[in-house]
Amino acid sequence: MTTYQNRQDVDKYAHVASPAEIKENDYNLNIPRYVDTFEPEPEIDLDQVKADLKQLDEEISQNEQAFNELASQLVTTQVNDQSKPEANNER
Prior knowledge:
mainly alpha, 42% helix, 2 domains, 3 helices
């Protein structure tokens, strides 16, 4: 708010346009005509990304092996088909 009140030019935020500049832009008051907010994307180190992916693949493989080892140690029980005892109807 103080930028507006003090009529300040702030890089990538605000610009005080002169009447001549506004006329030059055909009285178009769209902000991008006066304020450039473009910031370049940071470069991505693809070699580092490949190395990270390789490391993650190795960790996944190790974790899968550990999981399979633990899963094989689980004891499973099978439920035998035991019919329910018939109710005794004698009184």
